[in-house]
Amino acid sequence: MEHKTTQDTPWFRGAARSRRRSAARGLSMKSQATPVKPDAPASSAADTIKRVYLLDEGNKDMKMLLGGKGANLCEMAKLELPVPPAFIITTETCLEYFREGTGNLPAALDFEEQLKALEDDTGKKFGNPQNPLLVSVRSGAPASMPGMMDTVLNLGLNDEIVQGIIDTTGNERFAYDTYRRFLNMYSDVVMDLDKEPFEEVISEIKKKKGIKLDLEMEASDWKEVVGEFKKLNPNVPTDPREQLRGAILAVFRSWNNDRAIRYRSYNGIPDAWGTAVSVQAMAYGNMNDGCGTGVAFSRNPSTGENKFFGEFLPNAAGEDVVAGIRTPQPLEEMAQKWPEVYAELFKYQGQLEKYYGDMQDIEFTVENGRLYMLQCRNGKRTAKASVKIAVDMVKEGTLTEQEALLRIPANQMDFFLHPTLDPKAEKTVIGEGLPASPGAATGKIVFTPDDAEAMANLGEDVILVRKETTPEDIHGMKSAQGVLTALGGMTSHAAVVARGMGKCCVSGCTAAEVDFRAKTLKLGEVELKEHDVITIDGSTGEVYLGTVDRRSATEDADFQTVLKWADDLRQLKVLTNADTPEQAKTARSLGAQGIGLCRSEHMFFAPERISAMRAMIVSEEKKERLEHLETMGAFQRDDIAKILEEMDGLPVTIRLLDPPLHEFLPHSLDEMQALADTVGKPLSVVQDRVAQLQEVNPMLGFRGCRLSVVYPEITEMQARAVASAAATNKKAGLDPKPEIMVPVVSTAKELRLIVPRIQAAVADELKKAGVDMDIPIGTMMELPRACQTADQIVGTEGVEFMSFGTNDLTQSVWGFSRDDAIKFIGRYQEQGLLDFDPFARIDEEGVGGLIKTALEKARAKQPGTKVGICGEHGGEPKSVHFFHSQGFDYVSCSPFRVPIARIAAGQAAAQELLKKSAGDGLYRNSITNVKRAGKKTD
Ligand code: PEP
Ligand code: MG
């Protein structure tokens, strides 16, 4: 095969010409780039707006305007890689199209000059049968949205021009193959016709001829296909310019197709960005056996191994690789077949990877032995690959530790903490819910917590399936390998408790019909009965039929290295939300620097404890209540002592009882009778008490510090339990550091009432024990009123810290019930009303705005007040960045999210340092300065 170096290609000469032409016209890129503001009236500045860019007018930093694909094409051209000439229509023009709403291209969009440049660079003419130029029209958003939007290839063909292609290439088969591809794609993408009848035409002809492969089709066969396609859709415009306008419009429209909207909402990509459109001269991989097309990665995206990796298909177009009709060959075979082309590709991938400082995903086409680069972007990779690549690149000297740390997708890091599904295993997906708690579990399905416990005691692995879980399910959750619920969001009981236990959980699987009486689970067509086996993946939210192989992700040296980078940099402390000694131990082993939230009510979920709690609640007199409180106090003291021991030397924040009392009471008649028997009271007393405590809106009801206001004796018991546990440990030579936190505070007056009671009980207990120690008292900030009056709150005598409870704060700021919002949040996201679930990621504008107000007021009053966050957002990377930016002292999250929060906190610090260094002109020039600046001094 003939192979020319890229320097010989007419396109390179053309690119240089085009650069000169721009210079001659005085078109400096900066002076041309006048972006349209989304809300600017389109007509006002229409003539000064640059809507179309040639490749030599853009660069990699213009992703917002030219899309990722467009910006990287410009950059590859700048690096003098062989890129087919192209022009890019900006994302702003796409927004302008939507704003104008005429259904036509913006009147001011004019690409004739750039089309002419493409013609000059290729020596071909668009729409001219003598030497026709065909183009591809592709989408390209600022963030990668693989496969979500539309593309039209081989555009610029009609009956006359196809003859021109035959004349210029002498290859009739290629000409008709290309023409049929165009008719098919245009009909599908631009005119929205069904693909199937088109596919049937090809199948029929293949059947008639007794052949199977596209490669076996001859020129006359493709010609026949073209004839049939034209009958199926006689309305494809024959004017190439009309085709081009139609395709650009279709790409603009595809920004708002269902797939794209859903993808954006899952990935937090704003609807307001729009897509760019690249119009590029076609390079052909399907002309003959000297052509081909492929996809390559500069390193293995699955394992991270530093080995050029990819696949190619000879004599094929790009869409054949994607469609999977033929099995591509490994690049090694290309190296054998076309050593020079391979060597050139190999050189470019190395160059691009070094240049971008990241693993590259490359699309290329080989046309008659000549290589063309069609796309490069940072490649998607597994969690395992991402840490290996980051660590290797630091060792190789390509990246600093800070830069490498910023390449790590923090929220994928739970891969290392839980057994995960073998990606190669066969799976049958039967349902999908929210990825509530990572890991994967396989087991027999059971429908009650008692069954889960009983089966687990027999050594069986079970998955507990519930409509939703309540505190009474806790033993079942503990016994099960995993939990699947039909209702509930990311902060539902099931999700929070499962994450706390490090137990895999899929919540909010709304398609699941759970009948716990009949003990059946229906998921679409699949009906399962008790003890049928399923597998759930808490990292993706998927539910599978039967067993799926799992593998454990053990201690990984690269992962540990990445954690160390983060720890060396971060300013935020990472604490954990833990309610038991086991959780505390796990969290500490994962790097937790203390407990930011110990939900004391969780200590009463065990069966022998809940009965003491229930007896206390149904007490009719204070005296009786005090007796039961004493039993409860003993449990609590033991637990707290053990937790303090596990976290010895580190802070442990114990929160006073929060949930509404009725949550602890039994609901069924049998259970009420059992309680009545236990406490020796008539059933009617228990029933009355249950009825009395019922609430219409428990989340806004009798919970949190309101319990302390009405029943001070409960608070006193808890404060004494903390103090006496700490005193016991201290006497045993340990170093306990307990703190007490008051929940659901709305006014400083509540604290003025409660804090002195806590102080008195603590002082008394410590005095009795003969121990002198400090037990700081703080408040949760989880209601808007508390935030608005944060100065009064922190100004309250005895209040030493505040911890934002962003679960309740999100609930109360949005007015979305945290347990019910699952029913509509998905629809909000689909319709672009929400870019993300505010219960999963902090809403910086609304909830975050209120947090900022609170901080401002609090810091003005008491500058040194310790500030933390203990809602579920404490383990979510983007939220952690926000808390870092607001100067929080710590985040507190579920044990299994601790490493994620450590990495995210390190990344937030690294980002700040790199930005600062870039501002100081240090970035890249002085890696050592950045390193030094990032080191902690303490
Ligand atoms: C919160 O509301 O954010 C919080 C941590 O408390 P809980 O989830 O227990 O209500
Ligand atoms: Mg709360």
From TrEMBL:
Domain Pyruvate phosphate dikinase AMP/ATP-binding: 65-101, 110-330, 343-396
Catalytic activity: pyruvate + phosphate + ATP = phosphoenolpyruvate + AMP + diphosphate + H(+)
Domain (PEP-utilising enzyme mobile): residue spans on this chain: 460-541
Active site residues of this protein: 493, 870
Keyword Nucleotide-binding assigned: yes
Alphabetical list of InterPro entries matching this protein: ATP_grasp_subdomain_1 (IPR013815), PEP-util_enz_mobile_dom (IPR008279), PEP_util_AS (IPR018274), PEP_util_C (IPR000121), Phosphohistidine_dom_sf (IPR036637), PPDK_AMP/ATP-bd (IPR002192), Pyruvate_phosphate_dikinase (IPR010121), Pyrv/PenolPyrv_kinase-like_dom (IPR015813)
Residues of the PEP-utilising enzyme C-terminal domain: 555-908
Gene3D superfamilies: 1.20.80.30, ATP-grasp fold, A domain (3.30.1490.20), ATP-grasp fold, B domain (3.30.470.20), Phosphoenolpyruvate-binding domains (3.20.20.60), Phosphohistidine domain (3.50.30.10), Pyruvate Phosphate Dikinase, domain 2 (1.10.189.10)
Superkingdom of source: Eukaryota
Region named Disordered: 1-43
Name of the molecule in the record: Pyruvate, phosphate dikinase
Species: Scytosiphon lomentaria
Originating gene: ppdk
